[in-house]
Design goal:
single chain, 382 residues, alpha+beta, 2 domains, 8 helices, 51% helix, membrane, transmembrane helix
Length: 382
């Protein structure tokens, strides 16, 4: 990158034996800070507390604070204005994936609060276990120095650190060019922040794909599909708000102090505001375009699956309706036959009964005895 003032730390946490890792993370953001002094509950200590809480605690708590850049003010400039020593940014993503898919087993201890669930798969003895995974990126960078000093911290659940081993290193210029991210002098730290978020998006996509593949065999997936679509859209919206905030911060800053200069060009010819904003936005456009491409592809797949589930449910409903209609038709046939038999035989039965009642009279009259036998025979036939 043309300078040796930046470094990155990548950590995998499991919520069980992280006691040795957390102090290292705190040290990267709060070096030379007196964390026992309550008056320092702002700037870097506050940022570090939020950063760790958003990774280890419940998801969604005070998420609007992600988009705020914490600052540390120190000293006075020659013009008598407060000097901003550094700025700190953070970004968090989460994904739900199928437990045990891809040859790994996700297990976290009580130190990491993760959402879990079980999806019943019809026709199979085993259910589909779902688990949450998080990725967090934090940046501490100087804001006004021509050669900025920055520290980048990337955290992920320990079970996915195998994926993180293939992440491109921030010191490889060819990887920056392939990602369409341009390093710069004053804002090289912010560019590295964008570069790392972009490199995490394929990992984010891979886990979402594992979840969608895991539920392809399930029929009762409508609820989880709707939730998955909401969670994917949530990460896309978070990135959009983060970029908007940093962009506004760039616009309201002193453009002479915030000038973005190409490492291969003459600094005197690249301090214009148009060049500054163009380079700055180009870096984040590369990140957003990749996430939109991945996110829209996942959402399209979810929508297709939802349509298949709905069509299957409609087919099952139609099949049930046809079956019930067939049963109703058969029952109507039975009713029709019973009605016909009743209509035809009821009058004859009534006449037979009446005639049978009068046979007793015939038996008391000898002159009509021959006829009584005929009436009895007719009654039996009817």
């Amino acid at each position: 990158l043309g300078q040796r003032f930046g470094r990155e730390w990548i950590f995998g946490l499991n919520g069980v034996n992280d006691q040795g890792i957390l102090p290292i993370i705190v040290l990267q953001f709060c070096r030379d800070e007196d964390l026992t002094d309550n008056k320092h509950d702002s700037g870097r200590p506050r940022f570090t507390k939020r950063f760790l809480t958003y990774f280890t605690g419940p998801w969604g708590q005070d998420r609007h604070h992600w988009i705020t850049a914490d600052e540390r003010w120190s000293g006075m400039t020659r013009l008598g204005k407060p000097h901003k020593e550094d700025k700190l940014f953070q970004f968090h993503m989460r994904v739900f994936t199928a437990q045990g898919k891809g040859g790994w087993f996700h297990q976290t201890g009580p130190g990491l609060m993760r959402d879990r669930g079980t999806l019943a798969v019809p026709g199979k003895k085993t259910n589909l276990d779902l688990c949450e995974i998080r990725f967090s990126v934090g940046l501490k960078t100087t804001w006004e120095m021509d050669l900025p000093i920055f520290t980048l911290v990337t955290m992920a659940d320990l079970s996915v650190t195998g994926y993180l081993k293939v992440l491109e290193g921030i010191g490889d210029n060819s990887k920056w060019a392939a990602a369409n991210i341009r390093p710069s002098t004053n804002t090289t730290g912010v560019a590295a922040f964008a570069f790392r978020i972009r490199s995490l998006l394929p990992v984010w996509e891979a886990h979402w794909l594992e979840l969608l593949q895991g539920i392809d065999a399930a029929l009762q997936t409508d609820v989880i599909l709707r939730l998955a679509a909401d969670w994917i859209q949530e990460s896309m919206d978070d990135l959009r708000r983060t970029v908007d905030y940093i962009d506004q911060l760039c616009c309201v800053s002193d453009m002479k102090q915030f000038a973005i200069v190409d490492m291969t060009s003459d600094s005197a010819s690249n301090n214009s505001q148009d060049s500054t904003l163009e380079t700055f936005r180009q870096n984040w456009d590369s990140v957003e375009s990749l996430q939109r491409q991945i996110g829209n592809g996942l959402l399209a797949r979810i929508a297709k699956r939802q349509a298949e589930v709905k069509n299957l449910q409609d087919s099952l409903f139609n099949a049930t309706a046809v079956s019930e209609a067939t049963k109703s038709t058969q029952l109507n046939h039975y009713i029709l036959v019973f009605t016909a038999v009743t209509v035809i035989y009821l009058p004859l039965t009534f006449v037979t009964v009446c005639l049978a009642l009068h046979t007793s009279v015939f038996h008391h009259r000898p002159e009509v005895t021959p006829y009584a036998d005929h009436w009895n025979t007719g009654s039996l036939l009817l």
